[in-house]
């Protein structure tokens, strides 16, 4: 079995249960009382499955974000999708009518980059968002898809969501890890929600490299500690985490010590069982905001 290591807790979790290291300790409150508590502070909101599906806005989501802001509630977007660059994420948000800045969007690529020291060398098997985050961290970037690139002297192999995944890139990544590089996954989500349904996520790619190299991967994104620390550094007074995947968003809320609001517009369909249990459970972001700001 391939295990995923949590860099902060020193615990391990299977890719199929990505957040077993987190504790389910989010505060509970009864109906209207909890909703009243959420009418201030900062909301941490997932992107895929909550705001959009592969860039296509989920009905009512942009308007819901606008309503939150007009009510004085700050919004911090947190995504496990490490593929797009920061400018691409901001551009997608603008195109659906949501204004955001680099300080209000945090990705698992940022979390992964935070685990490396400036001046170190990383071999990447991921999208341009990973390369950008590492470059911002002043990490030397080598691409696993380059057949002529060196495989010695590599400090870490970073694996994120990408369609550029084949046997050769898998072999190069695994070889670098067996030679001593640390394996870091941007996240271990097994699937990725799209309008066509669920497609393989970063967790599937991380598991492949970990299996081939015979090691445990350190995971940076939700719900693990590197992402927790980035969010806490960006925003004070976080009051809720809103997401569509209980195993990541729900356990992120538990680690932050705030309620989890589940929306069923992405990975979790209406009627699907929920573990950990959600403090609030709504069809989508718009209906959640209606309930809080009514």
List keywords for this structure.
alpha/beta; Rossmann fold; seven-stranded mixed sheet; six-stranded parallel sheet; 17 strands
Q: Remind me, CATH topology of the largest domain? A: Rossmann fold
- Which consecutive residue ranges, at least 5 long each, have pLDDT under 50? 9-30
Estimated share of beta-strand residues: 15-25%
**Going by CATH, what is the homologous superfamily of the largest domain?**
HAD superfamily/HAD-like
Report the end-to-end length measured between terminal Cα atoms. 48 Å
Number of helices: 10
**Major sheet description:** 7 strands, mixed
Count of domains = 2
The total of beta strands comes to 17
Please give the order of strands in the largest beta sheet: 2-1-14-11-10-8-9
- What is the CA-atom radius of gyration, in angstroms? 18 Å
Tell me what you see in this structure:
- This protein is α/β, with parallel strands linked by helices and 294 residues long.
- The protein folds into 2 domains: 28-80 and 224-293, Rossmann fold (3-Layer(aba) Sandwich); 114-219, Rossmann fold (3-Layer(aba) Sandwich).
- It is built from 10 helices and 17 strands.
- The chain has helices spanning 31-37, 61-70, 86-95, 108-113, 128-136, 167-178, 202-213, 225-234, 246-256, 285-293, and strands at 4-5, 12-13, 42-45, 52-53, 56-57, 74-79, 105-107, 121-125, 140-143, 156-159, 182-185, 191-194, 197-200, 217-219, 238-243, 260-263, 280-282.
- Helix 2 runs parallel beside helix 10 and helix 6 crosses helix 7.
